[in-house]
Amino acid sequence: MPKNHQATAAAIRTAYGHRLRAADYRDLMNLHSVTEIVAFLKETDAYGELLHGLEPAYTHRGYLEVLLKRNLFTQCLHFCGLEHLQNTPFFRFFIYDYEIRELMKKIQLMPNGVQAYVSAMDAWVAPYLSFSQDALARAETADAVIEAVAQTPYAAVLRKLRKNGVLSEQYTQCEIALRACCLERILEEAEKTVKGDDLDALKKLIGEQVDLINLINAYRLKSVFRADGETLKSMMLPIAGRLPKRVCEELYTAPDPAAFLDVLKSTRYGRLMNGLELPDATESVRLEHAFQMLRQKSARKALHFSGHAAVSLYAVHVLYQIEVQNLITIIEGIRYGKPVSYMQSLLIME
User: Fold this and answer.
1) pTM metric for this prediction
2) pLDDT at residue 165, as a whole number
3) Secondary structure letter of residue 32 according to DSSP
């Protein structure tokens, strides 16, 4: 009988119970500086331990944002360590995410020389990667980048995309292909670790997240760049979600944003969006906010109903990503003197 690792799932739900609530966000939005934000967060259950050694008056905005992002990673490591799941298939999915981030950073900065990546890389993540970050940093050519990740599935992806010995000109295609590779990998690993209803719940959660990310990007491209169907299809994650292929085709080939929305309204996501849209915002802002709200609702539902650690960890990773982005939105909003109403329109809250 497969293990559900319910102790880990219970610990994840307990930790998520300490999340920031709407009242916390309202208080944060009414602060006036990073100093006040740090002082406030130090008094919360969610961030008190992380920030206990910081002196609010001397904490730089950029450093605070780095700490918040790194904390998401270390929390997932902590959860995996509770029942020694670090090397169990699927439970490294959040590390794969950072591997893609580092690879994309390297590809983007290659034209600027080796030092550009060295200055930008997250060196603290090196012990957890499945390739040598030092070798990646030293790479001066596309071939050297591929050699640095030769023992990973990413090498085959990059070989296909290398053109005339260059990767940086294929940046967008590289990111889509690498993220698709990552998703295929975690779905394959999920099959080895999770069974029955829990596997169905995990696949449903991942499928919904893929659908919503694709819908967000598709609407942006359709409304801002008037992208045609072929362009849209080439820019989407090529992983089957919960939307039928026929519906995706109709969405991507819609001649304009209005037609896109007409098709969307007939889908399960269109129906679920009722009541989630912001009343006093532009259509694009309202729609993207509703999509993000659906991402949150999907993850919260999975976390609530599943007792399997794999489902719980994937769900809470999505939820913590949203919380960190909310905090960064507030930090940047206060930095630039934005009104509370503006910041609130960008937050994803319960």
Assistant:
1) 0.95
2) 87
3) -
For the chain, the domains span 1-90+308-350, 94-184, 195-307
Residues 67-86 have pLDDT tens digits of 999 999 999 999 999 999 99
Q: How far apart are CA 137 and CA 111, in angstroms?
A: 13
Tell me the CATH class for 1-90+308-350: mainly alpha
The per-residue pLDDT for 350 is 82
DSSP string, 319-344: HHHHHHHHHHHHHHHHHTT--HHHHH
Kindly report, residue by residue over 185-237, the tens digit of the pLDDT: 999 999 999 999 999 999 999 999 999 999 999 999 999 999 999 999 999 99
The sign of the torsion formed by the CA atoms of 192, 197, 201, 204 equals: positive
CATH class of 195-307: mainly alpha
CA distance 310 to 45: 24
Determine the Cα–Cα distance for residues 8 and 11; give it in Å rounded to an integer. 5
Question: Can you say whether residue 226 is alpha, beta or left, with left for phi > 0 and alpha for psi between -120 and 50 degrees?
Answer: left
Q: Residue 36: how many CB atoms within 10 A of its CB?
A: 15
Question: CA 47, 49, 53 angle in degrees (round to 5)?
Answer: 110
Q: Are 257 and 222 in contact (CB under 8 A)?
A: yes
Residue 329 pLDDT > 80, yes or no? yes
In DSSP terms, 163 is beta-bridged to 166
Residue 207: CB atoms within 10 A of its CB come to 18
Q: How far is CA 151 from CA 108, 110, 308, in A?
A: 22, 21, 30
User: 164 in the Ramachandran plot: left (φ > 0), alpha (ψ -120 to 50) or beta?
Assistant: left
